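tool=predict chain=A
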Amino acid sequence: MKNYFTRRGFIRTAAASSAALTWLSARSGPTVFAADAAKPALLGGKPAHTGGWPKWPDWRESWEPDILKVLRSGNWCRAGGGPGKVPEFEEAWAKLLGAKRSLATASGTTALITSLHVMGVDAGDEVICSPFTFSATYFAILAHKALPVFADTDPATLTMDPKSIECRITERTKAIMPVHIYGMPCDMDPINAIARKHKLAVVEDSWQGWLAEYKGRKCGTLGDLGAFSFQNSKHIPAGEGGAVTGMSDELLDRCFAYHNCGRANGTFKGRGLFTRGGNYRMQHFQAALLLQQIDKLVKETEVRRANADYLSASLAKIPGITPVRLPENSRAVWHLYPWRYNPEGFNGLSKGQFCRAMGAEGISCGGGYSEQYNDGIFDETINSTGYKRLWSADRLKAYRESFKDLKGNARACAETVAIYQSMLLADRSAMDHILEAVRKIHAHSAELVKKA
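tool=predict ok
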């Protein structure tokens, strides 16, 4: 079933399912005999999990005084400079990641737009990025009237396959944008080596990579600039919000100017409006909310990791289930926890049928991302007046036809099943319920196929 769930649709469904399951567990249901206990719920068995899941986002009353203090001060916007919670958060975020500096922005999208501008991406340029991602990754490229050129996805990792990059580089290529999808680090050493060889910028899409690590360094510090999101579903949410991180004062000064309507600062202080820009600023009360979640983020990241490791060790033993592989010496943070699903290991039970069976067990799961380049957005793009002015008809035709070469991404979209991050914050018994559900569905998959 194509696009069984979009990521955000899946997140909404997971949240709704948690509430529904809590309600259902409090009501009397049909009697389940002992002989039926090991059956999948779709075949009359008892659901593996009936207690609901941790809600997200998680609000704490103890955060209210600091936020109210900011609101009552009337100093909500950082445009005028001076003290405020945004600079305080920027300093804390950079320290947490080991970055030299960070810049808070209005969203993850504006963090990427800012980063691409500062790295010189402009109309008519090309940026190599991943197709297995949320659409805002390539929307940020399109915002500059540049062309998102998709490297293929490695189905084993769900991230950009470094071997597929160089053949996509042209004289117009300006940057590479690896995506640490689901908080799983890309294999950055070969990506950075290719970028150095061809003198290309590297902008990390770390929207889902808070505290993810690659060979001892945090994601967002591995390229020229990194971009993070603090949208409502994220591990450290503020409704909306984002950040740019980096190791260069000059680059971050340029980012600051661009996100603040082109106003000079730092290295460029005194130059007035020396660059193009927009209003991409974070507000102080958002920063106040984020500051109070940093310790929580650190603690919950370790819980997610421990539960993900526990699941992976057992899921790997079930035929038809393959945990995702991480680069050597790296640690993920699991915005979604994915695995690869092979129907052949389940007597031909389709991925959609498997997800429905899991849902009946009280465990919402979805299919991750679809092949979004087939949804129409790029047909609209290459037929637009602006893109026809910037590229030849032959180039745009070849670009559209190149999507069929993304065999690895097609496979990743077809095989991926994932559960939402807040489910990894449940206790170990809930992880056992997930495993129990998969095992029941596997053991009775032939019957489920007949029932479908």
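The domain at 7-53+295-369+411-451 is CATH 3.90.1150.10 (Aspartate Aminotransferase, domain 1). Confidence is low (pLDDT under 50) at residues 1-5, 15-35.
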